[in-house]
Amino acid sequence: MLSNTYIKINLKNLIQNFNFLKSKISKKTKFMAIVKASGYGSDATEIAKCLEKNKVDYLSVAYLREAIRLRKNGINSPILVLHPQLDDFKEIIEYNLEPNIYSFKVLNEFLNCRGQNFNYPIHVKFNTGLNRLGFLYSDVNDLTKIIISKKINVKYIFSHLAASEDKSETEFTNNQIKLFEKINEKIEENLNRKIDKHLLNTSGILNFPEQEYSMVRSGIGIYGYGNDLVFQKHLLPVVSLISTISQIHKIKKGESVGYNRGFIASGDTRIGIVPIGHADGISRILGNRKGKLLVNNIKCDIIGNVCMDMLMIDISNLDCNEGDEVIVFDENNQTAEDFSKYSNTISYEILTSVSNRIKRVYIS
Ligand SMILES: *Cc1c(COP(=O)(O)O)cnc(C)c1O
Questions:
Q1: How far, in Å, from the CA of 262 to the mean position of ligand 1?
Q2: Catalytic residues
């Protein structure tokens, strides 16, 4: 056992999640794995390598730098860059990346860099209600005129659902789907050809599988979270965040712990020092008994203020020693989703907040 803070990345679970999600869609539908934000806080390259071995069709990241890093690490799959910036296009083409084209301005920059390379593939994004990136339905006629006159290779049309995990927003989601359909029909009519499409994220795959189109996009699901109790049984958390007790102190009534004396002992108290802090993604919000970590399977309160590089837990009622393992989150005892509840956030934020100074350990 490692006496240190480390992230355990269980690639067996990754493959199991990938296969489970694929079982929800038809065999001919492609699967895009989202590895943005360091693979949801894990390690984009290792996740991408593992999924490439298991024949993933596509990868996707948010920003150019993330995609370049994958290419430099030998990843050859098609990569969609979800949020290209105006001066990215030279490198997007140089590294053979597929851009999301979401506005006329971005389209122009792409065309300037593409030159005579008419075959260069793009994904065109439509805003159907999330009100984030994308063209509008009212842009379709102008857009298709440019696509025809500039001979643009639109490989996919896509959109993004705003509330696919929310059962109470089914009507809203159905309206997004209807609008996407209307956009698709108009484009295909104007261009006089069929175009491939993708729409669903993880919760979309689970809750609206009939909208799979030619490809689906999954992020949180491949890392083992389904935003849903029914599906959670089939998904296994990939990432565990484990630490240790570096030192134990016994303090007396009236003594304080940590910066600004955030904790004052009301009686004899035993505290453990844990080598992980707010610089590692443990929010300062979790101090003062808001967050809990597991030692020997017992929940221990974080006491005092979380420091940059360490935090303190109350181990008064616990038989434990220096060097014992401390679980921040793991596969089943306290998942990232359980841990997210302490600070009123979601598994996505917990996973992506983990700092990259923490050592990664792989299980395959
Ligand atoms: C991040 C992202 C996804 C992945 O969503 P999950 O809920 O993690 O599956 C899919 N599509 C787009 C456009 C995204 O930005």
A1: 38
A2: 36, 259
pLDDT score of 230: 86
**17 Cβ closer than 6 Å to some ligand 1 atom:** no
**Same structural domain, 268 and 184:** no
Is residue 13 lining ligand 1, measured as CB closer than 6 Å?
A: no
- Is residue 356, in this structure, part of any structural domain at all? yes
pLDDT surpasses 70 at 54: yes
Per the domain annotation, does 309 fall within a domain? yes
**Range(s) of the domain holding residue 257:** 239-363
Residues 6+ apart with CB under 8 A from 281: 41, 350, 353, 354, 355
Residue 37 region by backbone torsions, left for phi larger than 0, else alpha for psi between -120 and 50, else beta: left
What is the distance, to the nearest Å, from the Cα of residue 114 to the centroid of all Cα atoms in its chain?
30
Report percent pLDDT > 90 for the chain: 97
pTM value is 0.96
Domain-embedded: residue 162: yes
Given a cut of 70, whether residue 2 has pLDDT beyond it is: no
> Cα of 34 to ligand 1 centre, how many Å?
7
Indicate whether 205 pLDDT > 90.
yes
If one residue of 60, 124, 200 were mutated to test the ligand 1 pocket, choosing by the most ligand atoms within 8 A of its CB, it would be: 60
Atom of ligand 1 nearest to the CA of 158: 13
Ligand 1 atom closest to Cα of residue 164: 7
- DSSP E strand stretches across 142-226: 153-158, 196-198, 215-218
Q: Quick one: which atom of ligand 1 is closest to the CA of 221?
A: 9
User: What is the spatial distance between Cα 179 and Cα 172, in angstroms, rounded to a whole number?
Assistant: 11
Task: Examine residue 282 and state whether it is found in any structural domain, yes or no.
Answer: yes
Q: How far is the CA of 219 from the centre of ligand 1 (A)?
A: 6
Same domain for 128 and 68?
Answer: yes
Q: How many other β-carbons are positioned within 10 Å of the β-carbon of residue 332? A: 9
pLDDT digits (tens, 9 = 90+) for 227-257: 888 889 999 999 999 999 999 999 999 999 9
Among 200, 224, 248, which residue terminates a domain? 224
Ligand 1 geometric centre to CA of 291 (Å): 27
Distance CA 282, CA 280 (A): 6
Query: Does the beta carbon of 217 lie inside 6 Å of ligand 1?
Result: yes
